Amino acid sequence: MVQLSYERAEDLYDSIRQRSLKGECLLFVSADVDSLCACRILQTLLKADFVAHKIVPLSSYADLDDADSSLIRGNDQLRCIIFLGCGGMLDLMETLSLQEDVMVYVIDSRRPLHLHNIFGTAQVIVLDDGHIEADLSEVKTAFRGIEFASDTESEEEEVLEDEGSEDDTHGEDNEDVITPDGKRRSGEHERAEKRQKVASGMSAKSKRDRRREFRHVIAEYYVSGTWFGTSVALQCYMIANELARTTNDLLWLAIVGLTSQFIDESIDSEKYTTHLQMLYDEVRRFNIEPNQTSSRSQSSTFLSFPSSTNDESDIPSTSSNNIVIRFEDEYRFMLFRHWSLYDSMFHSDYVVSKLGIWKERGKRSLMNMLAKMGFSLHECQQIYVYMDVELKKILRQKLESVAPQYGLDNIIYRSFVRQHGYKCSISASDAVYGLSALLSAAPEACNRLGVTIKWNPIGNSRVASDDASQVPKWWLKNFYTAFDALDNLPLLQSGLQLCMQLQRAVVRQGIALIDKNSIRTLKSFRFAVINDGPDLPIFVHESMLSKLAMFLLAAYRERGRRNVPFVLAAYRESAQTYLVVGATGTTAIGQVRRNHFGVEFRKTAMKMKADFKNDGFDTAVMEIAKDEFGPFDPKKSLEFYQDVLGMKLITKVDNEKGKFTLYFLGYFDSLPSTEEEKRKLAFSSPGMLELTYNWGSENDPNLRYANGNSDPGRGFGHIAIAVDNIEGACARFEKMGVRFQKKLTDGSMKNIAFILDPDDYWVEFVKCGYAGSNFPEHVFPSVVGRPILRAEERVQTVQLKDIMVGDEAAEVRTSLQMSYPMENGIVVDFENMRHLWNYTFDEKLKIDPRDSKILLTEPPMNPRQKRVETVQIMFEEYGFQGVYIAIQAVLTLYAQGLLTGVVVDSGDGVTHIVPVYEGFAPENLTRRLNIAGRDVTRYLIKLLLLRGYAFNRTADFETVRQIKEKFCYVSYDLELDQKLGTETTVLVENYTLPDGRVIKVGSERFEAPEVMFQPHLVDVESAGVAEMLFNTIQSADVDIRPELYKHIVLSGGSTMYPGLPSRLEKEVKQLYLINVLKGDASRLNNLKIRIEDPPRRKHMVFLGGAVLADIMKDKESWWITKQEWEEKGAQCLNKLGIVNAS
């Protein structure tokens, strides 16, 4: 039982050298960056001593089994085996066919170590990084207490304990729980003595209790999860250091190995910083300028590290062929020295997750941040080498001042850079990314990504198997190529190019999983499966799948979601299996948690008797047979259609002859009591859903179910369900973690959504709406059109009429003279308004007014004579039985479930700021701004004219309105957007006109809605909407102002511009700070302001009206009846309680 500390590293190496000179020496190397660097360090030492050795790359325990049978078993010449980055977690004496004169040396960072390697045999030597000495004293006592127990004790325990009450001394057949077989090691005389000492003077019960406690201690050690110790490369460098044979090249390898652990989140920031200090001292020792004093190079502390990448004092002089290492802070966006700054940031896990790049808002945040730094997008999209030198000099300064404003607080960490003369600089992280890409990308993936790599043809002397006829695995070629890249700069640079493409794929796939809601949140972890897609071949390698899992963990951590682990699976079609990885999340960057998935995976798989393989060095990675991810699970599908879609299972029919089961589901309030009646209902009702389960299909590895729009059966077959509140339904689905194929906001069709059932079948949701409706039955523009040329009878397939109204007019607007019967929310042309009402009642609603009541809405301060004339028309011309008129702002609050608040109602013609208290809207506080959607459209026409696009006809107005609704937004930072608009083309969008012409819309997108905040742009002398809102609230009684600030509700189509709520809140706070707090920003936190922007605010007035009408429909006293009109005339309007306006 041997473990050696670094102080005895010289003894360890001397033992390796002496044994290797007498026979063969094998280096078993894990296929990861850290082990690769360690291998090169150790190889350098062995070569210098003329020690022959063979490098054997390993990617799994299966490879170790192959190597055991071909290189170890029966090999009389073998004297020494060295494990680098693997072997520590496995009982090597049990696994390998070792002869007595073979010594095994383990240098591994994976934890937990197998206790038999440390304490159970003298034939295995483990290099201790401090973990064994500091942390395993109790475990060591427990192990020896069980291992050295006498045979008599064991027999007594078997007699006294109940059968089956305790596990075997060495646990289950699992390398993570004690040992695989529980065999004792014999032949060591000292053990016999220890057995006697342990057994003497104790009762049988005490011995049992002690052994039970020992087993518990050992079990706790093994099931405590996996973690990482000191970098293997750093341990090998320490060996070289003890031998006084360190060089700058070996130092760089140690730096790269340590950095790989940090980037892969194998170690936390604290451990990284501790090791960094030691490496910094080494860098100063090997890379010192001639004029530097020895005291400066030797006496350094972490606090004396240079703090700026532009500090030249610590940068050694460089010549064209000089290779030096220098300390330099590194950014958390990858490969920026070799990529463009924009691409580097856009594709870095840290920036993507912090800004939420998968959303348009996140992309804009990135561009805004760069603009705020003073970096044009054109410069940022150039390769960093060709970027303006002055910008590169101020990059760190700008990042430190601007990045924290966007949540990028830890954008810099400490690292090293290697300068290759005048050729280029390679940072430690660059080297890790390049080597990792070369190790993990299969040739098929490289071809798919369009990257050419000069792969190393595996030489006969370096193949693990002596059978040259065997076709080498692709990862072997990758291993030797990456091994060569350690000192081959062009090859490493090709790895950097490959890494860029791989990272694009990671971000692309991660964003797709998040955006389509393909990630399921379960009780204790999140889960996602990649079944297909162009990038699937990239993610069938465990390192790439792990990178994707870590990206998703970071994304969910920054979204403020529950910090639970992540399980990610990718389908390996060639093997008909799923590769599954488990990753643990942390609450902050730089933290690391132990990974328990190795133990949990095995427990679950064995409990389910699943067909799985878990022979990788990373225990949190396993391969599961495709059958375990069966294409159709009746239970899952039934739960989905019942719990998610709200259907009821009517009946199921088992067909013994056909070997299938049919499930019938539908929407019913109640079901018959007998099975016969249920079957009759299932076969006679319209709109039934039938699911078919073919018995045994889960055992067919080649089976694929059509999902509606992919092979097999490519087409567009799917289920469609109509709902009255599609927005609410989609919000519920998102909350439940349902996967989306198309969200409401995707594409041009904004009124439909597609979700996926457990078998990836598409389910479409569409809108279906009088009093009590949750959505307007019909929405159309308030326009009336008359043909420009009376001779025209038809435009394409549309028959022209003398009068065309609403959407039928909008469809052929280019051939019509358009009229707008409402201005600023008030009827100005009752003749054309009658055409609109006729169209509404006859064509759309198809109602008989003589049997109906009608609830009308009006803006505040509507002139009384307009109200009177409207009611007169409703009673005398249409014959309605009852009329009610409500203020639009009050209805908006009803829809929000409020009675007090302030409504910002902006429609097509007018904007009103209406404070409402306990359901009453005081006229003296109501403000009116004659700027709204129509004015924004007119200003957009003017702006487009300046760009060279003339929209002169009345029909063009509708075209520009559609451009406005599609592209316009409110700028949060006007100065930044103006800079983006003038210096870049990122804001430019193309729009195809009805005649097929394509126009470009750029800065006009935010300039047009700006008239709502700056009315003087359209020659209106008035306060903007933000200032008017502030003045309105401040004019209210001081006691109700806090309630008004807390309930600012947006309503109307012209509040739908993206960015309007945040801009409104920003300006109101600024006005409050200046006018109320007199510039005292410390008191601004006391202002509780909330702007409510309901997703359906475009129809908030309708929703509130529908609620009110549903309440009123049976309350005759609330309505103005036809009889009251005939008896009292206009006086009956006083019943409404609306304050008259002049």
Automatic annotation (TrEMBL):
Disordered as annotated region, ranges: 150-207, 290-317
Record lineage: Eukaryota, Fungi, Fungi incertae sedis, Mucoromycota, Mucoromycotina
Keywords, in A-Z order: Actin-binding, ATP-binding, Cell cycle, Cytoplasm, Cytoskeleton, DNA replication, Metal-binding, Nucleotide-binding, Nucleus, Zinc
Subcellular location: Cytoplasm, Cytoskeleton; Nucleus
One GO molecular-function entry: DNA replication origin binding
Name of the protein this chain belongs to: VOC domain-containing protein
PANTHER family: CDC45-RELATED PROTEIN, CELL DIVISION CONTROL PROTEIN 45 HOMOLOG
Residues annotated as domain VOC: 623-768
Cofactor(s) listed: Zn(2+)
Keyword Metal-binding: yes
SMART domains named among the record's database cross-references: ACTIN
Basic and acidic residues: bias regions: 181-196
Composition skew (Low complexity), residue ranges: 290-310
Gene3D superfamilies: 2,3-Dihydroxybiphenyl 1,2-Dioxygenase, domain 1 (3.10.180.10), 3.30.420.40, Actin, Chain A, domain 4 (3.90.640.10)
Family the entry assigns: Belongs to the actin family. ARP2 subfamily.
Active site: 764 (proton donor/acceptor)
Record text on cofactor binding: Binds 1 zinc ion per subunit. In the homodimer, two zinc ions are bound between subunits.
